[in-house]
Amino acid sequence: MNLGFVAQSGWGKGYHAQSWMESNAREYEALVVLDYCAEYRGLVKAGVADHLIVGPVEAQMSVSDWMKVLRANPQIVLERHKSEIGTERWREIATRIASALRRLDRDQLVVVDEAHFVAPQREKLPKPIKELATTGRGAGTSTMWVTQRTAEIDKTILTQCQARMVGGFDGGEIGPLSSSIEYPAELHNPAADPAPSRIPDELLPSGRKRPTSLQKHKNDAGQTVGSEWIYSDDDGNRRRVDTGTVSMQSNHYGSEGNDLEPPEYA
């Protein structure tokens, strides 16, 4: 399965994505996280994955070198060294990592954080990245493409996702994913309030009538303690979920292969 994981900045995207990584990690032979913003160290501290900071030395590694690293560390968070590795260089490294992943014969979950930097719409999509999104699942590879900028990620990536987890967007603009959803797009606009009659019953909020659109939940201190999302897939499954009820052991530090199973929602 390829999963598009998208929401505006501040919607709790990284936290929710990490809960999916944690709940699926043991279901695969390997978990590889391309961590652009150093958000997923909680997986390392919880013993879910190993950790490697990708700096100048790692930037020189060949596809063969990466294959050795990935074989030796099946579950691993590859964290970009923020001060040493810029966006363009990270894209080059990610392309070599994708080539290595494509050559490994195993069931694996690959997570691409800030995916619009790895597969930007304005650049030619590197073949290894495209293969990861289009044919990777045939070799037992599932992917998660995490982004807040749907207009900036290559359309091939999102249109090849068989499942979507979509949070809130100001104005309800969700870019290429619009053609894949079968409900009012303004459901993703926190300021909107589409009529309940226009929304499938399974996507209506529980326990309240207004607003019908997705919302963030805040505590008395103004801190976000949960957010609402819509999950949908090509099999016709649709549901509204709330991260305020998500179960996860690891802490989040935020700035046609196997299916992906959602985390446990209370």
TrEMBL record:
Residue segments, region Disordered: 187-266
Biased composition (Polar residues): 244-253
InterPro entries: P-loop_NTPase (IPR027417)
Taxonomic superkingdom: Archaea
Name of this protein: Uncharacterized protein
